[in-house]
Amino acid sequence: MAKIIMSRQDIRRTLARMAHEIVERNRSTESLVLIGMRTRGVPLAKRLAANIASFEKVEVPVGALDFSLYRDDLARLERQPMVKSTDVPVSIDGKTIVLVDDVLYTGRSTRAAMDALIDLGRPESIQLAVLIDRGHRELPIRSDYVGKNIPSSRHEDIRVRLEETDGADEVAIATRPSVEEVKP
Amino acid sequence: MRITPKDEVRPVAGAESQEQPPVWRHRHILDLDDFSAAEIGLVMETSDAMMEILSRPIKKVPTLRGKTIVTLFYEPSTRTRSSFEMAAKNLSADVVNLNAQVSSSVKGECLTDALATLEALGADMVIMRHPMSGAPYVAARRIEASMINAGDGWHAHPTQALLDLYTIRQHKTSLKGLKVVIVGDIKHSRVARSNIWGLTKMGADVTVCCPYTLLPFGLEDTRGIFPEVTVTPDIERALEGADVVMALRLQKERQQSGLLPSIREYARYYQLTEARLAEAKADAIVLHPGPVNEDIEIASGVAHGPQSVINRQVTNGVAVRMALLYLLSGSKRL
Asked: Is B176 on the interface with A (CB under 8 A)?
């Protein structure tokens, strides 16, 4: 069973706030590039860019990054993740990159994404924006922009669904069934 | 947390929409006969991602760090071998090249002993070319490592076929319903055989064109293993309306047994010339697995002409082989 923790409206308001924070912190949008981490970071990056366009009247470039080939757990996974194309339309040299992801958890994806990004050039700086930060970091990584902090147990799943990838906007938290069974 | 009935019937949100790639069940790549269309599709899509890496200034990703890949070639090869080597290096694997023609096999070492040596060296994948059809199948049973067939006798050359499929898909979007004509020495061609498997699985309409003496077993009549393939010795008729023309190298070293009266006669009747290519569709593409015998199976004007994608095939080969090495590295024993 799952409990909805963010509705469609919540996600919309949160992304609007985050877009303002990104512009506020960087003072301008001039050297900004938003790069979504596949899969769900990509639509989130596009929505942040659309938000920025609505109040700053500037089109911030948006890219998509696939970091599968940089993962540190390839040998442990049950099956190989499907590799999709990385598509970054501009040179990232000297740019301020905002990496966008749906959930920040152990930080390992972020590490892989930063390595993938640095293979494409030398950005001025890299910032991290996540819709959900659920804690349990295993690496010294923090987010610069957080949609919502959700203290969670490792036995829980946080599921982000987005219109573009899943047909609906919502964030839900669920206890994993296998763990539930052993509960008294 | 209070559970309402509405919550109870609800599946874990998003669980059903988690992306599941098609299942990859191969530990070895021996031929395309045991590939499904979905698996070939997975190779194509993974190759797209690899093409993007090839377009970068630094063409290297760390995916296969610490893996050892051995190329073991009992037959000469430049492009296949260097293509595999580039692919492996782009994925950060360590590559050991063994030229078995001039090394231990000359000293009398047999294939199984050579494989035992490779295992002892710690090879994770072995890429083998061998003059005997079926040799990689024997080898795959003997070793823990993954085996990739880089050409065995007259039998199969699956990675060449996959890069041909990828090249066609790049130019024609979809393979389904395309008229693909394979012209040349089909009998001795492992490239043709693997391509026929791959093309028919992807729904292409395959026509094979050659003198009857160069037709292999399984294609002589409609009751063969490829009943859906059209066979004709008439090149003009074969090329009519073609979307893709694949010319094969005339294996001069294999023409001693009198299957052809002469190479000149073969060239006169079967060479892919500009005039014959005009029978195909105006946007037809021309493939050749290389190396090209210019003005024997293909006129040099066609090989270097605007419809030729021969050089694209070489570039694509590296991306497709990267995709295969990546996909194989997920098989459990590695």
From this structure: no
What residues of A are in contact with residue B13 (Cβ under 8 Å)? Answer: 2, 4, 159, 161, 170, 172, 174
Q: Is CATH 3.40.50.740 the right assignment for the domain spanning B60-156?
A: no
B227 token code pair: 């009943």
To the nearest 10 degrees (0 to 180), the angle between helices B310-329 and B79-90 is 50
CA atoms of A93 and A96, how far apart (whole Å): 9
Within 10 A of B304 (CB to CB), how many other CB atoms are there? 13
What global pTM score does this model have?
0.88
Topology given in CATH for the domain delimited by B158-313: Rossmann fold (3.40.50)
pLDDT at B158 over 60: yes
DSSP lists the bridge partners of residue B287 as B246
How high is the pLDDT of residue B4?
Answer: 39
Residue with tokens 């294999």: B254
Higher-confidence position of B263 and A75: B263
Q: Which of A83, A120, A160 sits opposite B49 (nearest CB)?
A: A83
Query: How many angstroms separate the CA atoms of B180 and B199, rounded?
Result: 8
Q: What is the largest CA-CA distance in chain A?
A: 57
* Per-residue pLDDT tens over the stretch B241-297: 999 999 999 987 777 777 888 889 999 999 999 999 999 999 999 999 989 999 999
pLDDT band at B334 (very low <50, low <70, confident <90, very high): very low
CATH number at residue A99: 3.40.50.2020
Name the segment(s) of chain B with CATH classification 3.40.50.1370.
60-156, 158-313
**Radius of gyration (C-alpha) of chain B in whole angstroms:** 22
| B256 to A129, B146, B266: CA distances (angstroms) | 69, 36, 14
The answer to whether residue A96 is domain-embedded is yes
Vertex A137, ends A154 and A184: CA angle to 5°? Answer: 15
ipTM: 0.83
pLDDT tens profile B169-186: 999 989 999 999 999 999
